[in-house]
Prior knowledge:
Shape: globular
Helix content: 25-40%
Strand order of the largest sheet: 1-5-4-3-2-6-7-8
CATH architecture: 3-Layer(aba) Sandwich
Oligomer: single chain
Order of helices and strands: HEHEHEHEEHEHEHE
CATH class: Alpha Beta
Distance between the termini: 43 Å
Largest sheet: 8 strands, parallel
Number of helices: 7
Amino acid sequence: MGRGREHRPDVAAWRAKTDAELLSPAEFRERTTSLHVVGVMGYAGRWRSVDGDPAVLRSADARRLLRAELIRRKAEHGERLLMVSGATNSGVLKLAYAECVALAIRAAGVTAEEALRFGLATMDVVVSGGRRFGDESRLFVETAEEFIVLGGGAQSLQEARMAAALGKPVTVIRGFGGAADALSVEDVPTARFIERT
């Protein structure tokens, strides 16, 4: 998709998959100007056991650490807090959206049309930022003010580096593999690193 051409989402397909309000990237940018937007990056797939570390324990530990980070931000920003992630209902993203429901934090999805092939999480707003996963990365990084990275693959790694290049705060939760464990102080010099305990 070339620069200057805004992606036109398949409105009927989004309506069939979610009750979330569908916004254009421009509408989303406008709506978030008075909010504190925290982006959550991580695996969008199912939890798996790794090296004898049972998936159920990995998921519970991830939920506990992610919840603590969201509670901290809600205490600081109150009703102005908006969590944004990739809209799908699996992996780290599923945990983030479930915690937003439990903590009464507004949630949004910035994703690609490709997400329509998967189950979508409960969220207030969704933005289709392109056709394929990765097309939405620039919008995601530009609209969030800070980020939490837990696990994640190549797209999370790229987005975390983009955020750091823009001088945005990044909290990296390590101990779950993937992008979060691969990131270093050189990648994200101002990052706050949290270790799984």
